Amino acid sequence: MTAASLLLICVTSSFSFADSLYLYATPASAGMGGAFGSIANDNAAIIMNPAGISATKRYGAETGYLYTSPYSGSRLDFSAVDSTTSEVGAGFGYYRDTYQLPSEEYVQRNTYAFALSAGEPGIVSFGMTGRMDLFTRGLSGQAESLGYGLIFSPGVSFLNISIAGLNLTRIRGTREQLPPRLIDAGISMLLHGVFTMAFDAVKNLEVDSKYSVDYHAGGELVIVNQIAFRGGYAWEQAENTKTYSGGIAWKAPRFTLAYTYVGNVENQKDSTQLVSFTLYPF
User: With b meaning 16 or more CB within 10 Å and e meaning fewer, what string describes 116-150?
Assistant: First the structure.
């Protein structure tokens, strides 16, 4: 999702598709087409690129909801990140999602993620995420994995380069339970302090094919430091799926309210919608 990415990372297994869709997306990351690994400046960083927690000094508590029509699925999440009270930033996320497999069987899962991050904002930051999935319907048992991330600004504050490995170290779980292993490389540029452009390429290590790299591009325009408009495009080679996204966010001093719509270029009936509320109490 992350560096990562991403909103609709399609892979050969429908389970992996649903995992990427439900676990990695927030309105910000989805609104930019999944090109979010080198930005990671909201709570999506917990799973997508934990280095983002320390890349921006902040405290944020967030709740979000996602609904997707292709898989008759939904996700509810709660998360918090803190990189202000100590030199080591931390984040915790809880995700409860339900989605339908092609067999028409529903899977229900509770995911817990804990991330640690350190570094110097504007220069370099790194992090690690531990994740545990508990299945209560459709599948049984649990899976555990570790992910890693790095964000680097090569001497200029307006440019970020990132690399992240999602779920690279597998500790426990079967192939059906474990999330896909992904390598996400990203780059982003902040222009004139108001417009951000970002690009990500995501390699799925579970797909043994030259068509296993997905591409994401997106942008965000912030007006008067309060209203953010987002747009993005993603090309998932594994399934030859192309999606577009658009989103808007209201950024008040103590909270952010965001919404994003994601559509399928070739099938307008397939859509995903996300909303979130983020509180900044300090």
Answer: bbbbebeebbbbbbbbbbbbeebbeebbbbebbbb
- Which of 231, 243, 245 shows the shortest CA–CA distance to 195? 231
The neighbour count for residue 189, using CB atoms within 10 Å, is 15
Q: What is the DSSP letter of 225?
A: T
Model pLDDT for residues 101-118, shown as the tens digit of each residue: 777 788 899 999 999 999
Q: What pLDDT, in 10s, does the model give residues 80-91?
A: 999 999 999 999
Instruction: Judge contact between 67 and 76, C-beta under 8 A.
Output: no
Task: Give residue-wise pLDDT tens across range 49-104.
Answer: 999 999 888 899 999 999 988 778 899 999 999 999 999 999 999 999 998 877 77
pTM for this model (two decimals): 0.90
- Residues whose CB is less than 8 angstroms from the CB of residue 258 and which lie 6 or more positions away in sequence, other chains included: 26, 27, 28, 31, 228, 247, 248, 249, 250, 274, 275, 276, 277, 278
Strand segments, DSSP code E, in the chain are 59-68, 73-82, 89-100, 106-120, 124-137, 141-152, 159-172, 182-191, 195-204, 213-223, 227-236, 241-251, 255-264, 271-279
Confidence of residue 23 (pLDDT cuts 50, 70, 90): low
Burial 68-105 (b: 16+ CB within 10 A, else e): bebbebebebebbbbbeeeeebbbbbebbbbbbbeeee
63: nearest Cα among 49, 42, 84, 83: 42
- Statement: 14-279 belongs to CATH 2.40.160.40: yes
CA–CA separation, 8 vs 164, rounded Å? 17
Give the CA dihedral 142, 127, 165, 221, nearest 10 degrees.
Answer: 110
